[in-house]
Amino acid sequence: MTALPIVTGCCAILHEVQSKVKNFSRIFSSLPKGNPSKIISMDCIFCKIVSGEIPAQKLYEDESCIAFSDIHPQAPVHLLVIPRKHIASLAEARADDAVLLGQLVAAATKLAAQQNLAKGFRIVMNTGPDGGQTVDHLHLHLLGGRTMHWPPG
Ligand code: AMP
Ligand code: ZN
Description:
By secondary structure, the chain is α+β, with helices and mostly antiparallel strands. The protein folds into two domains: about 1-30; about 35-145, HIT-like (HIT family, subunit A, 2-Layer Sandwich). The chain has three helices and five strands, in the order ααβββαββ. The chain has helices at about 5-30, 45-50, 100-115; strands at about 60, 65-70, 75-85, 120-125, 140-145. It is globular, with a radius of gyration of 18 Å. The chain binds adenosine monophosphate and zinc ion. Adenosine monophosphate (AMP) binds near residues 45, 56 and 134.
């Protein structure tokens, strides 16, 4: 009997998660389809970090992504979260990458909590030359530990 409110609560949470996933899928289904990205790019520095060929200070890894400290930190906390799979940039992401993109954001949010960024943080995905992207393997910057400025410049 006492389990009933818990079960009802779980159903409500499940329903909310399902509707969020549905919305998320709808948004990303508008991304271009086909032309799946290469799994690995031989001359990509981040692919080499994924394979272990180049060392990095890793703080997190799971089956789809890894996170490590940026070599030139722009804030007290400056981590990069990257997919294991080579995707050159956000502009190259495809509808099939929707879940992966969500996983990157979820990993960054988890890391922000681990890094005690309760006062806030910034997630940046520089895309293309005008976006300031210098490494052509999709990545998300997690910046925190200081007050960020706007516009970013
Ligand atoms: P972006 O300019 O947005 O493409 O970001 C690339 C980031 O990768 C820069 O902030 C660099 O400092 C960082 N970076 C480049 N090489 C390495 C490396 N070997 N280990 C860690 N971070 C790196
Ligand atoms: Zn790569």
